[in-house]
Design a protein that fits this description.
Length: 152
């Protein structure tokens, strides 16, 4: 498992996603709630934390769901990108947060960025991140995360 502090990753996701206690449409039109949870991706176990319903959802429940989702996602990221564990903590957190936003499959499409990260070429990794459709769709988050990579 990784050596990153989950609390800083959780705080970053919370800041970048924001919180809504009711269903809303995300930027791509998906029904979403909590800290950017797609409604159709909430598992029965996760819904049980909210008495089996989707909304309203309070922050306490959303925090529990976020931790469950991150535990599973973190494992999936390291399975897909095993060498990532050798990268600096903040780089690992950025890749995991990107996977939180776009899925592991989405992150794996960042082949050049991942190759730059693997080679510890964080300047080019950061620059490459900013050339993506993802950066055009969510520019503020992309800039924040790319800046973290560049400073690694």
């Amino acid at each position: 498992m990784s050596n990153f502090k989950k609390s800083s990753l959780i705080d970053s996701i919370k800041e970048n996603e924001g919180f809504k206690d009711h269903i809303y449409k995300d930027t791509l039109g998906f029904d979403t709630i909590g800290y950017g949870f797609k409604c159709d991706s909430l598992t029965c176990d996760e819904l049980e934390l909210n008495d089996g319903i989707i909304e309203p959802m309070n922050k306490e429940v959303a925090d529990k769901i976020l931790k469950k989702k991150l535990a599973k996602l973190t494992s999936e990221v390291y399975d897909a990108i095993p060498w990532l564990n050798n990268s600096p903590k903040e780089v690992q957190e950025v890749v995991i947060e990107m996977a939180y936003q776009m899925g592991v499959g989405g992150v794996l499409k960042f082949k050049n960025t991942l190759n730059f990260i693997k080679e510890n070429d964080y300047k080019n990794a950061s620059s490459n991140m900013m050339k993506s459709l993802w950066a055009k769709q969510t520019p503020n988050r992309a800039k924040k995360l790319a800046n973290i990579i560049e400073r690694a």
